[in-house]
Amino acid sequence: MDFVFVLTFAFCFSVLWLFIKYARQLGFIDIPNLRSMHKRATPSGSGIAIFIAVFITSLFVDVGDYENYSMLILAVFMVFLLGVFDDIKNFPAKYKIIVISVAAALTCFDNIIIWNAGTFFGYELPLAWFFAVPFTIFAVTSFTNSFNLIDGLDGLAGMLSIIILSALWYLGYRNDDFLLIGIPSLIIPGMLAFLYYNWNPAKAFMGDSGSLTLGFLIAVLGIRALNYVDPLVILYLVAIPVIDTVVIIIRRKKSGQPIFAPDKKHIHHILLGMFNGNVITTVCVLALIQLAYVLFGVVFVSQLPQEVTLFFFIGNIVFWYLFLTRKSVYHSKLET
Predict the structure, then answer these.
(1) Which of 27, 109, 189, 261 is 20 to 30 A off residue 123, Cα-Cα?
(2) Residues 6 or more apart from 263 whose CB is under 8 A from it?
(3) 3-class DSSP state for residue 252?
(4) What are phi and psi of 64, to 5 degrees?
């Protein structure tokens, strides 16, 4: 496994270097606009290089165990291609949701399904297939888009993915699950290599080819981990992207804005304003908060009644909503 880790890191690092060098000729350049956080044209679509390198590296490991997950592999490939095409020419949000939903449905054929909603007040809440499958599709599609939206600052998506995937790897190691061990073992070193180029000031961006594929894989692995932990553990493992999306949806619904309307009021935008535009500080603070959620989820959630941890998570959403709304109003007044 150490050999695979080093090989993946080195190969991803090299492929990313080549991709960035020829990104302009290939047409993968992000030109700044009103919503951009960067000020100069920057190579984008690095997810293409990352996942091509990861795929090639995977050929050097034992892939026999993955033969029973052909639908999962096809689904990941679909989401990756969607991201590639979106990096080349922006797709409307509704079409992206349709493709991701179809990919999520494919994973259900490999039994990547949320069969249980948890145990509350001593009662287990199993889900019948006619509810479990649509709920799984909704959960995977929602988180994939949530992770895509959190990719708004140099290094943020990379840091969060490494923290979340490390937690999923730990659950896999503890339960000897080859999917939860194998996939993070390939992606984490790739993301570490990417962080070298994406750390502020970024030399390259991940693009949707990276963020959509990462979000999809994290969602699928999270569902796989439900074989060993309570659903609320996974909710804490992916807390920052989920809380950010829920807060954004509530705020837009209350203000009468379309849910998919783009803005600069995500959690990372508002914290960036609090830290006077210091990207590195903002990313490190969010990474530490995500790490705290992960540690709480892995260490404590399974030891506490689920109704308590659910109430605590909802309380966190309320806190973040009030905090971010107040800070958003404050910074809007400063800008005017």
Answers:
(1) 109
(2) 35, 257
(3) helix
(4) -60, -35
Number of folded domains that form the chain: 1
Residue 261 is encoded by which pair of tokens?
């309307």
- φ/ψ (deg, to 5) at 59: -70, -15
91, 82 contact by CB (below 8 A): yes
* Strands 116-120 vs 42-43: parallel, antiparallel or unpaired: unpaired
Q: Which pLDDT band holds residue 259 (cuts at 50, 70, 90)?
A: confident
Q: How far apart are CA 323 and CA 1, in angstroms?
A: 43
Give Cα separations from 213 to 50, 73, 80, 128 (angstroms).
11, 12, 5, 28
What three-state secondary structure class fits 205? coil
Residue by residue, DSSP assigns 264-310 as S-SHHHHHHHHTTT-HHHHHHHHHHHHHHHHHHHHHTGGGS-HHHHH
Higher pLDDT, residue 91 or 47: 47
pLDDT tens-digit readout, 178-187: 899 999 999 9
Q: Taking residues 137-162, what's their average pLDDT? A: 96
Q: For 89-155, where are the alpha helices, taking DSSP H only?
A: 93-108, 129-150
Question: Amino acid letter at 229?
Answer: V
Spatial CA neighbour of 201 closest among 273, 277, 265: 277
Q: Is the pLDDT of residue 258 over 90?
A: no
3-state class percentages of the chain: helix first, strand second, coil last, to nearest 5: 75, 5, 25
pLDDT single digits (tens) 272-287: 999 999 999 999 999 9
- How would residue 288 be classed by pLDDT, with cut points 50, 70 and 90? very high
Q: CA-CA distance, 317 to 336, in Å (whole number)?
A: 28
Closest Cα to residue 165, out of 15, 8, 302? 8
DSSP 63-101: -GGGGGGHHHHHHHHHHHHHHHHHHHSPPPHHHHHHHHH
Q: pLDDT value at position 65? A: 65
Parent domain of 109 = 2-335
